[in-house]
Specification:
With 265 residues, this protein is an alpha/beta fold. It contains 14 helices and 7 strands. The mean pLDDT is 92.
Length: 265
């Protein structure tokens, strides 16, 4: 999660999920961003459309869409999951454009921040790790991700606007954690979409690492801006299938640091 878009949240979420799957962990990726970037990284638009009509999406689980499929049958949470995406390494709960208006649609819903947790309670224990890709805000989808989670991760690109809201985001999550009476820990801050070296970028990175509040949470591993990452998304593949050894090394180092923090290494 990050309050700013374009910082590499989806690349981190999808490829960390693939990293976990390739390392023997039963992994579920949940796309909570109405832009559906994680969804279309994992499946084609045609596959998504067929599945969403027959089996539903995360919008159904959150109560935005009717809880019935095209045949008028009640949608079962387990059937919303698309099994074995990214070369059969992970499972996916796809997103839907309807999430764009979810705050208006669920304005009066009771306990609306725990809708997802309650909807998937019967299937979540089948997984070793569940990863949520969030929109760049703290609206209902992000709140549902937090209410489901034990930890959260902040991808940050080394630019002023991307890093500006980190302290605000951390303080808001801490308050939300108290409100829902659930401990939610910061697992790490990931430097992502790192471009060519420049004085400004290096200054931003140095400032982040030196921060007294969260500097120790900035991971050693950093994800550079690479064309292979965009190509992987177009090919419905993880970075680990793209033959770019440097990119694979970076994402593996990131994954190992996160798994260690989560007690999964």
């Amino acid at each position: 999660m990050n309050l700013k878009g374009g910082v590499g949240k989806t690349a981190v979420a999808v490829n960390f999920a693939a990293h976990c799957g390739l390392n023997g962990l039963k992994t579920l990726l949940i796309d909570l961003d109405p832009q559906t970037n994680s969804t279309f990284w994992c499946v084609t638009p045609e596959e998504w459309q067929e599945h969403s009509i027959k089996n539903g999406t995360v919008a159904n689980l959150l109560g935005v869409r009717q809880h019935t499929n095209a045949e008028g049958k009640e949608i079962e949470p387990a059937k919303v999951i698309i099994r074995g995406v990214l070369a059969n390494t992970i499972d996916l709960i796809p997103s839907h454009l309807d999430l764009f208006t979810i705050d208006l649609d669920l304005g009066a819903a009771a306990a609306r921040e725990t809708l997802l947790r309650r909807a998937i309670k019967e299937v979540v224990n089948q997984y070793d790790v569940v990863i949520c890709d969030c929109p760049p805000n703290l609206t209902i989808p992000t709140q549902n991700a937090l209410a489901l989670s034990t930890h959260y991760v902040i991808p940050v690109s080394p630019d002023f606007l991307s890093s500006l809201g980190v302290s605000l985001l951390i303080s808001r999550v801490e308050k939300f954690s108290i409100d829902v009476e659930r401990p939610i820990k910061l697992a790490g801050i990931i430097l992502s979409r790192v471009g060519r070296p420049s004085y400004f970028r290096e200054q931003t990175i140095t400032t982040l690492r030196a921060n007294e509040t969260f500097g120790s949470k900035v991971l050693t591993a950093a994800i550079k801006e690479r064309s292979k990452v965009a190509e992987a998304a177009q090919m419905n593949a993880s970075i680990f299938r793209m033959g770019d050894n440097e990119a694979i090394r970076e994402f593996n180092e990131m994954g190992e640091e996160l798994r260690k923090e989560l007690g999964l290494l």
